[in-house]
User: Fold these one by one.
Assistant:
Number 1:
Amino acid sequence: MEEFTFSLKDEEYIEMIKVIKIFKLVGSGGEAKIKIDNGDAIRNGVVESRKRAKLRAGDVIEFGNGRINITE
């Protein structure tokens, strides 16, 4: 599994679909939406079906062959 880190910097959160697209774990936003709807996104060990879920520092997302750690 490939590891990624996303720093929020001065932001409070980032939406799930945006961070998945940033690291190119999908070919398009439409593909990301379908995969999230199908239960392919895991947030902190639990299936996350909200495309616009607000990810905050400390969250860990598993999606496809990637793991994204959200930091401050």
Number 2:
Amino acid sequence: MGSPVMSSFLQCGTRPLSLDRPVVMGILNVTPDSFSDGGRYITLDSALHQAVQMQADGAQLIDIGAESTRPGATPVSLQEELDRMLPVVEAVAREVDAIISIDTSSPQVMTGAAALGAGLINDVRALQRPGALAAAASTGLPVCLMHMQGEPDTMQLQPRYENVFAQLDAFFDARIAACEAAGISKSRLLIDPGFGFGKSLAHNVALLDGLAHFRRWGCPVLAGLSRKSMLGALLGGAPVDQRLHASVAAAVLSVMNGAAIVRVHDVKATADALAVVSAVLRHRSQEAG
């Protein structure tokens, strides 16, 4: 397959998101048990304050999640996810100018959040839950399809691949075809290889090094490595709160290797680093042109 031309923007509901420069997606977990910041933003005021701060720090997207998908996480009920998610989406849409992304696999959350102003669906299960394809199609929003081997409660027990790139290719081929059959055009899709979601350290490093491979469908690539256990392992067992510099390095490598969007906890540090990366990439593009 050749190298398809990437669109310079993504239409997020009524809002265009420019992809001419690297985009920072800030993570807003409104859960009590997320691996890095669980419990910090479970009140509406704290969540809204964090969204405002992330936008000020350089986030163009705010990714709101109401169900933890960390390794070993247990699912929450649909009603609990709705109760956590929808008031925050409504408040952020009213008070913050950044585009809202919703981190969910639940069809009812997709349609409910879209009605309140969300602009992007970010699904770790790639619209595989019953009804998710139809729900996502009905919103008209772009969708990020992520690869995960297994489910959050078991995905890191023994991840195995014959060839990690070939198996992810087959997965995305199938999910893109399913989306198109459901009326979701490829112009509305993003690709996320799913760092840490059913992958060993060796798999994660190989995927980061070869991230440009996933541009083959002509869809923007999203990379999420912020504070993840692979970084802790590379630092000799560093705990979550000591992975800032490694997280920024991973974001820089992601963008240099082809990612259009990076999903991060530490927005200001990442945005500052990517300002330098962006200058280099613009220079490189001008030299090539």
Number 3:
Amino acid sequence: MDAPAFPTRWNVNAPELIAETFSSRIWKVFRADGSPAIVKALKPFDDVKDELRGEHFLAWRRGEGAVRLLGCDGHCMLLEYAGETLLSQVLAEQGDSAATAIAAEVMARLFSPSDHPAPPDLQPLRARFSSLFNKAKTDRDDGEKSLYVEAAATAERLLADPVDVLPLHGDLHHDNIMHGPRGWLAIDPKGVLGDPGFDAANMFYNPLDRDDLCRDPRRIAHMAEIFATTLGQTPAAILDHAIAYGCLSASWHHEDRNAIEESRELSIATAIRTVRLSL
């Protein structure tokens, strides 16, 4: 595939396509000093605003806990090279506890104070949860006492009384945390605004190929303890965020008519709920 014409001012060369997703093409390039960098070229798709909010989040974070935004041009971003080691590799080689500890360290850095004003276009968590609220309303109207209904009530409670309201990554998981020259960094944020507990939630549902791990009550309880300590919250609150997030993700899959992934998310949310009820 031919590389797009990158801005001359970036002075990058030798582009190599290293990944392609539904939303973007990812190119590894080299800068004038020989150092590697990444170009993320967005495709035209429905949720491009998500990606642009993520770009603004990275610009605001200025490299603290996340990759640096080195340049932007329309729907193209020039990004710091984050390395080649994914957190999921640490989990596979050193175990889940080691991976969870690293994720907690990255979270702590992501939520460290900034002297700069937050981007104005970050998506409020209430708007992020709209699909869950819509699905819960449908279920209620149909007389169903589903997990969606319960999770929507939990989300409403969390939104009404946030521990803090901060810029969030919005999609933190084992394949969005990488190790490179500057250590462990988060990549590919969505740019959300709300309670930091939301950013711990997706970790419970990952890695995607480890349902045995994601449903393990000991792992669920351990993650809740670690992230609660990191974020200054209770394990119960972290688990509430995890349940709400999982049902939100399931509602997205429901909209996409992806019954297999919807069922997976709900089964993990149910396992998390069981641990939550034991506290």
Number 4:
Amino acid sequence: MFGTILTIVVPCFNEEEVLPETNRRLRKVLSDAAQEYLISDTSQILYVDDGSSDRTWDLISQFSEESRQVSGLKLSRNFGHQQALIAGMETARLKSDCVITIDADLQDDVRAIREFLIKYHEGCDVVYGVRRKRETDTFFKRNSALAFYKIMDKLGVRLIPNHADFRLLSRRALDEFVKYQEENVFIRGIIPELGFKSAKVYYDRLERYAGRSKYPLKKMIQFALDGLTSFTITPIRMVTYLGATFVVIAILMIGYTLIQHFIGRAVTGWSSIILSIWLIGGIQLTAIGVIGEYIGKIFKETKHRPRYTIEENLFLYERQARRVHAGK
């Protein structure tokens, strides 16, 4: 048990304000877990700098020099939160028995990591960190998240409610996860699809320690759309059903109009014509937009571009240096 090598993957984007405290807390978690023989003392924290414009990478480099528990991965530009997570997981996979992902803002309670490891040693390949409540979120974010989970469930997409990207994956789960090579990746939807034995660890969501959220409304909407269109074609089917419904309504209206004409009650109305044009036009534009969203996804997938580009890899350097040192 004590030989289990854990890597904690932490995506970072302009996190210089919070990173020193994050590093202090995560190092303590590693030390405490090693003392309990839950993990090996060679376990590490892997920070992934997702194209930060502040001193984030300088701090990561400094932490790495100060402690063998810390290493870093620098991406060449900002690729996005999900891609940064994937970069960290794929980098850590070959050198780790399990990987835990957590955001740098300290809203996810690091004390729950101990429970993650216990569940892992009980045989779980996937452990989800699930919020007990969302009191720290705004009214809009709390209710929009609830609506998102309900909609995804109705559309047949399996998600873990109130679970973000705070989770543990075993080496076996990681090996299967990397086989999913789509460009429009939605990690929260992929992980439940793996089907391995899983568990949930509940924790209280904390206030952000420092800095500001990197997920404004625009990004939240885009994230929700990516999740929806990456896992189901139900929206296109709904557009088809809607179109068929209006065809039926149109046929009924034609019949009604002909009856009114023959009984002499036909009255031409400008308002009804204009309203009909606006209604049908709006539906057509919406339908085109939904179809266009899927075509855009196909366009990106066919390019097969890399998800990310690594500019500097301290994790690889640290591991190699330790093997050389051990050989001496």
